[in-house]
Amino acid sequence: MRVSPRNSPAFGTEAAAVETGGTSLAAVAPAETAPAEVAPERLGASRERLDGPAKVTGTAPYAYEHPVEEPAYLHPVQATIARGRVTSIDTGAAEAVPGVLAVLTHTNAPRLADTEDAELAVLQSDAVAFRGQFVAAVVAETPESARHAADLVRVGYGEQPHEVELGPEGGTPAARTDHGDLEAAMASAAVVLDRTYTTPMQHNNPMEPHTTIAQWTADGLTLHESTQGVYSVRSVVAPVFGLDPEQVQVFAPHVGGGFGSKGLPHAPLVLTALAAQRSGGRPVKFAVTRQQMFALTGHRTPTSQRIRLAADDRGRLSAIGHDALEHTARIKEFSEGSSTASGIMYAAPNRRITQRLVPRDVPVTSWMRAPGHCPGMHVLETAMDEMAQACGVDPVEFRIRNEPELDPLSGKPFSSRNLVACLREGARRFDWQRRDPAAGVRREGDWLVGTGVAASTYPTHVFPGSSARIRYEGGRYAVFIGAADLGTGAWTALAQIAAEALEVPFEVVDPHIGSTEFPTATVAGGSTGITSWGSAIVQAATSFRDQYGTQPPEGAEAEGATQPNPDAERFSMHAFGAQFAEVRVHADTGEIRVPRMLGVFAAGRIVNARTARSQLIGGMTMGLSMALHEHSVLDSRFGHVVNHDFAGYHIAAHADVDSIEAAWIDEHDPHVNPMGTKGIGEIGIVGAAAAVGNAAYHATGVRVRDLPLTPEKFLR
Amino acid sequence: MIPFDYRRATDAEAAVDLVHGHPGATFLGGGTNLVDRMKLGVSEPEMLVDVSRLPYDTVEPLPGGGVRIGSAVPNSDLAAHPLIREQYPVLSQALLAGASGQLRNLATTGGNLLQRTRCVYFQDVTTPCNKREPGSGCSARGGYTRQHAILGASQACVATHPSDMAVALAMLDATVQVQGPDGSRKIPVAELHRLPGDEPERDTVLGQADLITAVDLPELAMATRSTYRKVRDRASYAFALVSVAAALDVADGTVRQARIAFGGLAHKPWRAARAEETLRGAPATEEAFRAAAEAELAEATPLADNAFKVPMSRNTLVSVLRDLA
Ligand SMILES: Cc1cc2nc3c(=O)[nH]c(=O)nc-3n(C[C@H](O)[C@H](O)[C@H](O)COP(=O)(O)OP(=O)(O)OC[C@H]3O[C@@H](n4cnc5c(N)ncnc54)[C@H](O)[C@@H]3O)c2cc1C
Ligand code: SF4
């Protein structure tokens, strides 16, 4: 008899590392009746990535590396004013560079069929709406000659006054929710807090920059694209070029991270496809440089957020106010939604949540890991720490005391809500009960030491519109869906879901993703990938078994699509978590170190313990990076981000990341979707920075209300 | 980036001749700074003369005491060299506090000394910068100045020199061996880099065709207990906000001699002569260290974003001296 992989020693080790989630699932494994050789898959197993070997051997093709015949290379010219018009362009010197095939400007670029989305209306007019916007592009035989020629394009401008700075006031209302009377509650409460916090502009910086290979053929447009959704690209790009969706083929088998910035197509993709209309049918390649990413591929708005809290003398909240101010590009409105999470986190009869948007002459804002919830929960959870302190209540207990029974906004029940369990389990593991609440009193050598806590949450959605196809051949099940794996583990997790739904061993499933040749899939965004695509796969598997039973004929095939969820209207659906951090601040220099972070999450069923853990600690690391480093410095005189490279825009380096542990509690939610999953791509970042900031306060007695927590803020 | 010619020099004289005869030529070491600048369009040499393979790749004791470091020695080899680790730990520590393992494998002694400022406006050809384009203006003034100078700056330029290694060398009284069109000469490291004054485009006193062939370290007993402390925004892989290279000779609770240099504060490694003078003969106490730091920083002129560098450099120096005493 062969041993089921779930019982192998390797699995045991991994399960111990992730504890609750892995362990409990492992415990049920021996009770299964194993068919012939290998047991059918059960979700939760700790599977190595199917794409792992290809990645570590450098053979997994990323968009730019896809082999194509006779490629030409693109290099853009970017505007050096933040607002105004292009008045002249001299391309003579650029055209004279040997190897240059074409120089595109707004005067000669092919016309787009649809220019409604101003971000994508590349080279369609002389208007400049932000510094760094494309004003020309060179296509050449080599990347070097394209770059050289681009430097030789001379552009004249008629400059207009610009404004890029976000002040504490102003803006147009974007959303507002009122319950009860916030002001009256504030006026009559025993304890009140009224503070304004800021978070800086931040940039998604996936390791792989945005890259495109575009080629026009008789059938239409073929794109090798680094994207979070091949179908998102198709549906956005087709109308821009006046094509039927089927005329746009998109391939993205492997993606080197996106964090939201590859969720929707940006201008570089359109520019490359435009240029490929002038390359004589040759494919055109463009890899955005790191510096260019700071103007062209989206960013997180800076925020200014006012929090008001009122509580009685026992630490029970009577009011929550959250007013968020964000910027948006003048040419394309996008609301981060920073105050949204304050609607559901804590009970309070009086509540006001507002959102205001300030249009600025900046590049387009877009999704960045946990849009809204990331900056919004950072300030809410910092304010909760301040309020716990003001009420004289332990911050874990303070949150538990204000746990709502129903969704405070909608009045609906939660499909499942285990914030309290996460707080308790985290507190137990972190040895929280031995914590001395006094701030700024512990010193080890030159270092001041403290600990902090914050809550996490992220909504659970399923995007409608994914479908999957399953085909049986040669004793194996091929699963086709146009999903994307950004390094998340989707290749593997989707195979696990298919194996479980088909009740077959994992080893006989072959996933096929990342192509518009496969059935429609929604974007890998909003932590919906696994829930949406998985639901379609489960549906396809059910349909397959319904049609063919357990002895399918060779070539048997079935499709299925995500189904509307009747429970979606009845329940409020969210994942929750609790994050704990230990922080050390150097007493002389203010340098800050985070030796330990722990996150405990309640995020429904975990599909793959190994890749889930990696998603969660990845999110927490990004939260650590946000807490300590990330800050796009917008120079208001010029209108662009001046620290636009990795020497200037700091992201946590290895030495900044010490022990980071992620665990989860067993959560069974029958309402969210057929698998019971809630999505884990984003919740790890939510609240992580607040836990670090709260710990820094506990270490030093210094409350930093403006991120990031750089050393000078702790200097005495 | 413009097309350029590439030559590999066979000996120092040939290298100097090649560059001397060509106004658009420049030396290439490991390329970790120069090639970045070329990609950004900040430097546009028409010819690179590669000196990284010249036979200056050894670290050797000098006959009369001290050590000679070849200009082509990689930063990683220099940091790991037993002579350096034992006799000049400050230098080893400074090197290891800089850049990353991969960069240090490529970076050379000569190139490290002559790397250029990381001022974000210097590196961005779309903004005015007196150092890059004399007379165009200084964008840092009134802009983002977190990394900029608080000592010795001028109206024309407030940039800092980014090298960690150079700070240790300045503290050690190292000298640079230079081969130029008119023969060879020696320059103390502390006098190699200039203050910006009215000519911020000139980082150093070297001419275009001056080749660094070696750096000599004097014999220095107190250097065996020297140290380098770098304060930065990240735990690694970030340029210094403030750094201190120091060595202290204390007998019976009294400072006989102190050697101190700051990094991150000026257009050059900042040898803290006033602090050293204040400490000579002073008690080795925290108060004396603080007084010395304050004496050195009395004339600091912080900018909008970098006032913190005054208390940060004071505290760092006090903390380093406390540990050394
Ligand atoms: C991401 C990053 C992070 C970094 N972090 C740090 C840091 O924290 N601390 C730090 O100190 N440094 C840091 N550096 C800079 C690094 O130390 C320098 O790039 C390196 O030391 C330069 O050496 P090189 O041999 O590559 O010089 P090159 O790039 O080859 O040359 C630099 C300059 O020196 C000239 N030159 C080279 N050799 C000679 C010679 N023998 N004689 C005359 N002229 C010569 C060249 O013409 C050029 O102008 C960092 C660099 C990068 C890219
Ligand atoms: S500080 Fe110096 S390098 Fe920076 S912009 Fe001003 S002149 Fe240029």
From TrEMBL, chain A:
Residues 31-54, 547-567 are annotated as: Disordered. The keyword Cell inner membrane does not apply. InterPro entries: Ald_Oxase/Xan_DH_a/b, Ald_Oxase/Xan_DH_a/b_sf, Ald_Oxase/xanthine_DH-like, AldOxase/xan_DH_MoCoBD1, AldOxase/xan_DH_MoCoBD2, AldOxase/xan_DH_Mopterin-bd_sf. GO terms for molecular function: iron ion binding; oxidoreductase activity. The keyword Lipoprotein does not apply. Signal peptide: none annotated. Pfam families: Ald_Xan_dh_C (PF01315), MoCoBD_1 (PF02738), MoCoBD_2 (PF20256). Keywords: Molybdenum, Oxidoreductase. Residues 57-161 form the Aldehyde oxidase/xanthine dehydrogenase a/b hammerhead domain. This is Xanthine dehydrogenase molybdenum binding subunit apoprotein. It comes from Halopolyspora algeriensis. The lineage of its organism: Bacteria, Bacillati, Actinomycetota, Actinomycetes, Actinomycetes incertae sedis.
TrEMBL record, chain B:
Residues 1-222 form the FAD-binding PCMH-type domain. GO terms for molecular function: FAD binding; oxidoreductase activity. Keywords: Oxidoreductase. InterPro entries: CO_DH_flav_C, CO_DH_flav_C_dom_sf, Diverse_Substr_Oxidored, FAD-bd_PCMH, FAD-bd_PCMH-like_sf, FAD-bd_PCMH_sub1, FAD-bd_PCMH_sub2, Mopterin_DH_FAD-bd. SUPFAM superfamilies: CO dehydrogenase flavoprotein C-terminal domain-like, FAD-binding/transporter-associated domain-like. The keyword Ligase does not apply. Signal peptide: none annotated. This is Xanthine dehydrogenase YagS FAD-binding subunit. It comes from Halopolyspora algeriensis. The lineage of its organism: Bacteria, Bacillati, Actinomycetota, Actinomycetes, Actinomycetes incertae sedis.
